[in-house]
Amino acid sequence: MNRMQLSFSNRIVVAVALFLVAPACGAAEPSIRELNRFAAAEAQQAVAVDATSYCAISSQSIGRYEKQTNKPIANWTAPADSTIQHLNSGLVYDGRLYCAHSNWPASPLKNTLEIFDAATLKPLESKAFPESEGAINWIDRQHDAWWIVFAFYGEEASRTQLVRYDDNWKPTGHWSFPEPVVQRFLPNSNSGGSFGPNGNLYVTGHDRGELYVLDVPEADGELIHVNTLAAPIAGQGIAWDRSDVGSLYGIVRGNKEVVAMQMSNTEEFTKLKRPVEWVRNKNNPVIPPRGEGFDATRCMNPWVVRSGDNYRVFYAGRDKAGTHTLGMATSAIGDLADWERTGPLFGSGAPGSFDAKWCVLPHAVKFGEAQWHLYYTGNAGRGVGLSSFPGLGVATSSDGINWTRSDRPPVLAPSGEYGTPDAIGIAGGSLIAVDQPDGSKQWWFYYTGCPTTGKAHALNQQKTICLAVSDDGIHWEKRGAVMLRNPERDYENIAVAGPVVLRDDDGLYRMWYSAIGTRWGFYSIAYAESDDGIYWRRGVKSDDNLQLTPNGSGWEKQMVEYPTVIREGDHLRMFYCGNGYGTTGIGTAVSK
């Protein structure tokens, strides 16, 4: 069996951790970049994190601080007669803070989990472990199981092991650490650990500024060393922020600092090769709502294909009752003022299905001479925000005009696991065919994933851009997140979504996507480039990748979003929608 068959994290969550694919010589590489530092007196052992705060942890005290302001919220210090001697790490899960604790280096060794109310830091419970060999150094929750490391030091460091427990605290798996990683731990041991957003396990030693990236095989045995990443910390306990996919917290104990970091790549903020400037059509919107029919009150989510001398723009329309269905508008390429509209192309699904309420975000792709697939996003009529979109469906056609909706389950669905890029919702994007080394073609689907929701706008609207691959366009293998929000650019510091990807003749991948940030509070359209379709660059400085923004006092003053791009002679043609997610219709622009 090969590594892909054995890897527990890859089989359950994603097929490959894309941020950790081994790069070709000279290509971009995965990296961890620093976002911020916070002074915290308790930052001596570890940090734990939830949606709004972080907990700095020392051996006998914990401080809870607000993420954005570093304002102290709560604190706890062990009383003089406490049995708590050495808190090692922390995990916030389901409203509780779980701290790994041991009395190391005392003998006999005693290990406990100290459990606190995550909001108030009030002690709730202490769970003793019978294991008396190896100090409990960290705890995490993943794949509906608990994961704990029992650490040994110095000459015995190779005895350090990762143990998986079920909810009854029965051991269900044991793994040792690979020797090259153990050597980096010396003269100490594994100090921290946390499962990352694409399924790999990230661990630290006690003092080096390094993250060791590991795969966990399904069967007991040895962990697989995938990569070593430099990080602006000094070992100790770490925590991936599962409310903000791709964000990682660690500490520098010597300075008593908490460090906020983000997953990145070495070229993410380098110069763009082919940035684009756009000229808006003076007659926009070219496809407005008609006041009657399936698109009476909204025209959104355009997707354009060329048919001879015509453009076919597939889009989602909303009728007066609020129902969204898919339609198509056809126009001569040289006359974008006159559109013939057809719709709806098909209806919604049966009650209880993933697309029972709406069908939106169409994406039509020709698979052969007489085979078309129309991918779309279903709304089930339940849930909040993107969590009400539980899957991507497919309709088929022999002519690209008449469509038959499939009754099969969604071809792509949310993972359902907290902390993954598409945990609770999923929406469409774009599809391209990528040549493989053996001469075959593989379909790459860039789509929108929703990791979580919350009352705050930044949580409610948070989205990531993900990738799945397929040989037949029906059966898809997820490859995880390939682009995250950029906290340092105020037009995309909340979300990135709706990717459309083209590939130039020389192999350059070019992506246009909808970005949400605090600058407008709504969507603008941004741009990125990649040499391999995995690691993306966004330009050196803020606004380098900003393409279209809310504009004027009319149909697009609030937002511009959901672009689709097609080559038109020596130029590019973009269609996009405006205010209210297309309540003012669809416009177009051409590259200079």
UniProtKB/TrEMBL annotation:
<dbReference type="InterPro" id="IPR023296">
    <property type="entry name" value="Glyco_hydro_beta-prop_sf"/>
</dbReference>
<comment type="similarity">
    <text>Belongs to the glycosyl hydrolase 32 family.</text>
</comment>
<dbReference type="Pfam" id="PF00251">
    <property type="entry name" value="Glyco_hydro_32N"/>
</dbReference>
<feature type="domain" description="Glycosyl hydrolase family 32 N-terminal">
    <location>
        <begin position="362"/>
        <end position="544"/>
    </location>
</feature>
<protein>
    <recommendedName>
        <fullName>Glycosyl hydrolase family 32 N-terminal domain-containing protein</fullName>
    </recommendedName>
</protein>
<feature type="signal peptide">
    <location>
        <begin position="1"/>
        <end position="27"/>
    </location>
</feature>
<keyword id="KW-0378">Hydrolase</keyword>
<dbReference type="InterPro" id="IPR013148">
    <property type="entry name" value="Glyco_hydro_32_N"/>
</dbReference>
<dbReference type="GO" id="GO:0016798">
    <property type="term" value="F:hydrolase activity, acting on glycosyl bonds"/>
</dbReference>
<keyword id="KW-0326">Glycosidase</keyword>
<keyword id="KW-0732">Signal</keyword>
